[in-house]
Specification:
Blueprint lengths: L11 H22 L8 E2 L1 H8 L3 H10 L5 E3 L2 E5 H6 L10
Antiparallel strand pairs: 1-3, 2-3
GO biological process, one term: regulation of DNA-templated transcription
Pfam family, one: HTH_17
Protein name: Excisionase family DNA binding protein
């Protein structure tokens, strides 16, 4: 089914200006709301220990407690940086 629009009292220049205005607004909205997908970053046990400034045995203990989730391929163990950062919880300030 074809649809048609009839424009009365609109010059081609007015139509172009309206379209340009609409396109500019759409581009601004896209710029503000577009979040490019970041590739997942995998860290080794040593890198996690360095990132959190803890010992590798503490990383192992966190895995055993379910605080950290590990992933493996080819006999190597990795951790997702996004999961490590998401696992950080805010602490309330100490009362004096």
């Amino acid at each position: 089914m074809l649809q048609s629009t009839i424009l009365h009292n609109t010059s081609p220049e007015d139509l172009i200006n309206q379209l340009v205005t609409i396109l500019k607004k759409e581009i601004q909205d896209l710029k503000q709301n577009f979040q490019p997908k970041q590739p997942e970053e995998y860290l080794t046990r040593q890198q996690v220990a360095e990132l959190l400034k803890i010992d590798k045995s503490t990383v192992h203990n966190h895995v055993k407690k379910g605080v950290l989730k590990q992933y493996g391929i080819g006999g190597k163990v990795y951790y997702k940086r996004s999961e490590i950062e998401a696992g950080m919880i805010p602490l309330s300030p100490l009362s004096n």
